[in-house]
Fold:
Amino acid sequence: MGYGMEYVCPNCGHSVSYFLGFGRLFPDFKKTCEILSELDNLINREELDKILSSESFIHENDEDKYENPEYLFEHVLSGELYECSDCEKYYPLNFFRIRSKEGELFVPRYSCEECGRELHLKKDDVFKCPKCGVIMDFIGEILWD
Ligand SMILES: [Zn+2]
Ligand SMILES: [Zn+2]
Structure:
């Protein structure tokens, strides 16, 4: 379920790999909740605490066990790549989406370590070398379950 992407710079030979998706890190719902509780920089910390302590909060794969969900993991916890478009820095971080019955969405919010601006999910596959700025070559994908 998880995968890594490897890139190498054609100019200086510097290589990077990013590990994304969900792997063994998040084996079950309880563990997922624990990880969520440990995240500091969420969009609304207080609201999230409320969600996680709610008995009606469900994991989308555990549907049969609960009847009246108020909240639903719309996107289970997974590693995604975020970027700062100003610094052109990339960060593999946890992404998830929780939707309330009223349609309210909760997603994590992260900021750049360099400039403090809000990070955005990376939409394309173009990576610049952190050393020299040249566009890196995609080497391959590593898969694991
Ligand atoms: Zn380079
Ligand atoms: Zn930045």
